[in-house]
Amino acid sequence: MSRNKGGRHKKEIKKSRRAELRLTEAEFEKLIQLEEETGVNRSSLFIKRVLENQDFIITKEVIIQLAKVGAEIGRVGNNINQLAKHANTIIKNHQLPPEIISQYNDLLGLHLLQERELYKVLRQMYRVMKS
Q1: Max CA separation in the chain (angstroms)
Q2: Is the model's pLDDT at 24 over the cut of 90?
Q3: How far apart are CA 35 and CA 51, in angstroms?
């Protein structure tokens, strides 16, 4: 039987020092926009960008792009499966046209390319979240 791991949180280091910054109106608007886009508060933005030299922040836009890539990979995978099924049906009759093999190889290449891009972004996101 597993033990309940809930309960009191471990103490975090209390932030007691304050830093102030003066910005132009344009810089302040840019800061507000970045804060809204990322969903990260100003303090965390400064800490991540300035002190930790982190230039990649997971934003709503990143999540939207990942969803698009995931959907596209799903469509390509579906097409690959349909072609493979069709090819297997035709192989039984010993009449596999070269166009089917060519189309299959093209879609498989596209699928692998998109999959590599997705993994690259996910690894980058993991590194950011880990630090």
Answers
A1: 77
A2: yes
A3: 17
Residue ranges making up the domain that contains 124: 58-131
Q: Tell me how crowded residue 76 is: count the other CB atoms within 10 A of its CB.
A: 19
Q: Is this prediction's pTM over 0.90? A: no
The contacts of residue 52 (CB under 8 Å, 6+ apart) are 131
Q: Angle 11-15-19 (CA atoms, 0-180°, nearest 5)?
A: 170
Q: How far apart are CA 87 and CA 94, in angstroms?
A: 10
Domain match, 30 and 52 both: yes
Over residues 54-111, the pLDDT tens digits come to: 766 666 777 788 788 888 888 888 888 888 888 788 778 777 777 877 887 888 888 8
94 with 116, same domain? yes
**DSSP states of 40-91:** --HHHHHIIIIIS-------HHHHHHHHHHHHHHHHHHHHHHHHHHHHHHHH
Q: Is 53 left (phi over 0), alpha (psi -120 to 50) or beta?
A: left
So what's the pLDDT on residue 130? Answer: 64
